[in-house]
Automatic annotation (TrEMBL):
SUPFAM superfamilies: PLP-dependent transferases. One of its GO terms (biological process) is aspartate biosynthetic process. This is Aspartate aminotransferase. One of its GO terms (cellular component) is cytosol. Belongs to the class-I pyridoxal-phosphate-dependent aminotransferase family. Its EC number is 2.6.1.1. Signal peptide: none annotated. It comes from the Eukaryota.
Length: 410
């Protein structure tokens, strides 16, 4: 029943294929700049000290059990996640205009939002039931939205010449999209480019989205990880909420807690300050519960318990902020080191974008051919689009990598 005419061979996932190739490589100098997971200066996974502390507390708890969580997840986790992403003094939280559901990390939150939109989003103009994502965007976005039957289009974002944001082209594209379109936005640390709008640019983006009555969907996978400041990285979402938008948020705790495999995340629906807000929240909540029940029944408990302990305890929270500064600080140092080494070597091209970009990734501007040479000749693994995970660099390999880049661009 499942011959190749009905089930053709699918392509291997690019990212996980890259990891497998890296693991097979026996060269002692090999460098993994593929996957977006934090590594310490010894290229090893890093368990955040605050996560270790929370883990010990959890294990000591004599009442800990393995019961199901409620359908919408651990209440103390979802309420703290809400405050983190909307801001503790958010007008939306005060007015109880935020509805939150714990999900399978950020991917699950994007999926739940996509599924909700596919079932319930009904713009007056039917042609507006389209998701506009940045060009480029996280590779998984496309399949998450199209798998639930939503059409995807893109808006210009990254200017290849300047390796920076092409704001004018982005605004023009949002302006010409059918009124009421779904606009997918990366809240901070844009993946894969590392290019974020400034606050002034965000205001212009918000204005066009408001004028055109588009519907914003924020994907936030790196709060606190980009700049080291939770508030700064959450600014765009806070601003949109202050402007009274109805919007969706997918929130991941994979990177900022280093809880990748524990799948801790949250989906938030925020409605505007209308008199019918409570009614909207109740109806939307009831439908999200039905979707959640049919998809995963209820979310996994362990990662959410760890994050919840930290988010709800002042001392642990302060330790977490310290850990976030450690991770983001090391990445920022590596950006400086890489740019410095390339400039020292006189490597052809401009390298200022390496320090101007932010977060886990840098879009180097290297071509697919150069990326191929880096892999074949230098055992450096990165995606074909020239993206590198800054977390894969450390004081021991940054010079090697700079020399490798130098050799392939000459
Ligand atoms: N969205 C973006 C833009 C990402 O970069 C990621 C992780 O790479 C995610 C969402 C979701 O990741 P996870 O499902 O591990 O939380």
């Amino acid at each position: 029943a499942f011959g190749p005419e009905v089930v053709p061979q699918g392509p291997e996932d690019v990212m996980f294929g890259l990891i497998a190739a890296y693991r097979r490589d026996q060269d002692p100098n090999k460098v993994d700049l593929g996957i977006g997971a934090y590594r310490d200066n010894n290229a090893k996974p890093w368990v955040l000290p605050v996560v270790k502390q929370a883990d010990e507390l959890l294990r000591k708890d004599p009442n800990l059990n393995h019961e199901y969580l409620p359908i919408a997840g651990l209440p103390e986790f979802t309420s703290a996640s809400q405050q983190l992403i909307c801001g503790a003094n958010s007008p939306a939280i005060k007015d109880k205009r935020v509805l939150s559901v714990q999900t399978i990390s950020g991917t699950g939150a994007v999926h739940l939002g996509a599924l909700f939109l596919s079932k319930f989003y009904s713009p007056a103009n039917k042609e507006a039931k389209v998701v506009y994502a940045s060009a480029p965007t996280w590779a998984n976005h496309n399949q998450i939205f199209t798998n639930v039957g939503l059409e995807m289009k893109s808006y210009p974002y990254f200017n290849k010449k300047t390796c920076a944001l092409d704001l004018d082209a982005m605004l023009a594209s949002l302006n010409s999209a059918p009124s009421g379109s779904i606009i997918l936005l990366h809240a901070c640390a844009h993946n894969p480019t590392g290019v974020d709008p400034t606050q002034e640019q965000w205001k212009k983006i918000a204005q066009v989205i408001k004028d055109k009555q588009h519907f914003p969907f924020f994907d936030c996978a790196y709060q606190g990880f980009a700049s080291g400041s939770l508030a700064k990285d959450g600014w765009a979402i806070n601003y949109f909420i202050e402007q009274g938008f109805e919007l969706l948020i997918a929130q991941s705790f994979a990177k900022n807690f280093g809880l990748y495999g524990e799948r801790a995340g949250c989906f938030h629906f925020v409605t505007g300050p209308a008199s019918s807000a409570q009614d909207t929240i109740a109806r939307v909540g009831s439908q999200l519960a039905i979707l959640q029940r049919s998809e995963i029944s209820n979310p996994p408990a362990y990662g959410a318990r760890i994050a919840s302990l930290v988010l709800n305890d002042k001392a642990l929270f302060a330790q977490w902020e310290e850990d976030l500064r450690t991770m983001s600080g090391r990445i920022i140092e590596m950006r400086k080191a890489l740019r410095g080494k390339l400039e020292q070597l006189g490597t052809p091209g401009e390298w200022n974008h390496i320090t101007e970009q932010i977060g886990m990734f840098s879009f180097t501007g290297l071509s697919e051919e150069q990326v191929g040479k880096l892999r074949d000749q230098w055992h450096v693994y990165m995606t074909k689009n020239g993206r590198i995970s800054m977390a894969g660099l450390n004081t021991k390999n940054v010079e090697y990598f700079a020399k490798a880049v130098d050799s392939v661009v000459r």
